[in-house]
Amino acid sequence: MQSYPLSRDFHVSFSDLKIVARGLVRPECVLALDDGTLIAAHGEGGYSVIASDGALTHRLIEPRDSTRAYVPNGVALAPNGRVLFADLGHADGGLFSIDRQGKLETVLDAVDGIALPPSNFLFVDEHGLLWFTVSTRKIPRSEAWNHSVTDGFIGVVDENGARILADGLGYTNEVAISPDRRWLYVNETYAQRVSRFPLLGKPGSPVLGPRETVAQFDGADLPDGLAFDAHGGLWLTCIASNRVLLVRPDGDVQVILADTDAEHAERIARGIRTGTLQHADMQTPGRSRLGNVSSIAFGGRDMRTAYLGCLLDDCIRSFQSPIAGLALPHRSRRIS
C-alpha cells in the first residue's frame, strides 16, 4: 500500500488563510469548478457566484416564484447546469433548482409519500444520481442537538425514484463517496461522529450496507462539511469548535486548523451532553474568527486550494494544501 503523503506535522494557522470573497450571506456550502468559478449557498434564497477574477454575483429566487422563505443550505450543480439546493427552512424542506433568472423549480418535496422535513445537503454523482440528507424530523431542529435523537436519514433519487437508503442517524449532514467508490461517508453532526456505509448494488440503483463508525469526537467538535483528498484522507470542518480536521487513511485524526474560543466550546459541549442546547447558542462562534466553519471544497488548477464556507460570516476563506483534493463530478460542469 502506498504511504499517505501528507506530513503529520502539517498545520495551517488563521494568518495563513486568504479571503477569497466577501459580501456573501450564509455561504454554508461551497463548490469549486475547474475554470476557477466558485458557487456558494446564499442564505436569503438562492446562490452566489464568485468568478475567477473575483467578481461576485448573487442569483436569488424571483419574488413571484416564492411563497415562502427558502434557506439554501447544501448546493449542487447538476449535469444540465442547473444549480440545486437543499432547503433548510424553519418547518419546510425539499430539494429545488434555480436558474440564472431566479426561476424556481421543485426537484423533490416528498419521499415515501411524506413531505420532506427541512433538508440539509445534496449532490449529483457521476451517474446522475441525486443524493440528499435530512438531519432530523424534529421541529424545531434544536430538539435534535444532543446525543439521544437519531432520526436523520440519507436518501437518493435514482432509476427507481426517490427513496430512503439509511435512517436513524444522529443529525445527518454532508455525505461523500470514497475515491474507490466502495463507501458512502456521512457526518453525523450532533452524534459527533463520522460514519460510513458499504456502497453496494448497481451504480444506477445503490444499496447501503450496515453503518460503521470511522471517527468519534467529543467536546465541541461537530462535524459538518467533508471532502476527500486524492489519497483517501477525509477532511472535515467542525462548527462550534471551529476546527478543520483530517481523518488520515489509517484512522488517526490530525488537526489542520483551529480557531477555537475555549469558553464558548465548553458551553456548547455541556449543552450537547445535557440536552439543553438552544438555537441561540449556535448563532454565535464565540470569539472564533472562522464564523462556524461549515464546509470544505478543493479546487484550483492543481486541486490544492481548499475553500472554506461558513454559517456566521460573510466570506469564503482558503488555504493551500500540500496534496490535491479529489476531483468531484461537478468540477467540469458549468452553470446554465
TrEMBL record:
Superkingdom, natural source: Bacteria
Pfam family, one: SGL
Domain spans labelled SMP-30/Gluconolactonase/LRE-like region: 94-253
Protein name from the UniProt record: SMP-30/Gluconolaconase/LRE-like region
Annotated source species: Caballeronia calidae
High-level lineage: Bacteria, Pseudomonadati, Pseudomonadota, Betaproteobacteria, Burkholderiales
